[in-house]
Amino acid sequence: xxxxxxxxxxSVGLLWHRPGMNRWDSIHSVVQSIRKADKFFxxxxxxxxxxxxxLAGQVSDGSLVGMAACKRVERLxxxxxxxxxxxxxxxxxxxxxxxLALDITGLDQVTDRTMITVADxxxxxxxxxxxxxxxxxxxxxxxxxKNCRHxxxxxxxxxAQLTDTSIMTVAAHSTHLLExxxxxxxxxxxxxxxxxxxxxxxxREVRLAHCSKLTDDAFTALPATPDSGPLxxxxxxxxxxxxxxxxxxxxxxxxxxxxxxxxNLILAKCRSITDRAVLAITRLGKNLHYIHLGHCARITxx
Length: 302
Prior knowledge:
The chain is α/β, with parallel strands linked by helices. It has helices spanning 5-17, 24-35, 61-65, 86-93, 112-121, 138-147, 164-173, 190-199, 217-220, 249-258, 275-281, and strands at residues 49-51, 75-77, 101-103, 127-129, 153-155, 179-181, 205-207, 224-225, 229-230, 238-240, 264-266, 290-292. Pfam families: DUF7885.
């Protein structure tokens, strides 16, 4: 860095784009450089990707607070850093207008305080993974859905506290959505899933495993369009309906009609489906790559 100014200018961005955060001495060095008063470059503005998941459970608020000056982070991955709270995460996202992807899987102490800050600042957000974050409520998800209009990937796996209010708002405002995971959202009911599928025609992957309140209406109520006939979700490739016990043959038939290019269909523990559903599935032909019908006891050798 001290030999050639031109070389330094050309290389510093590459060196700081994704700083190594997999060892404590690396983290200490990064934080020291950022806090240094007489530094050669504004290192905090060069950090685009920040991933502390390698150290996971060892990372605390004190570890993350030193990165609060990094306001141009585009991808923030804190998977299973379970000691982190709003105290360090909220200041980090506050003022960040560049964030595209946020993964806080397993951070069960993070609350709406941080998520509201995300909604107010991170308007370019495309991916959000809050798997297992049990203190995040409908209030902040609604705010994010309304403000962050570029959402493409959402994972709410295990967030059983979320309700139709969140999903309805996502459906109304996130029309470019590609993937959504609602695994274990036991409060979600059929109308919100109907709205989601109707409003988000580009969906490629939908995971609804253990959404126990879903019925046939989630799919049979899908509207038909006046000009082109029944709604068609040509982009949908993966649909997981594991343990949606109230789904029956009518739902499966409508799914096949609506999603003709499904590759992966998971109906394990959907105990109401019969041979009639399997016959409908055969219409997928060569498009179908994987099917799971485990514990569907009403299916016979027919």
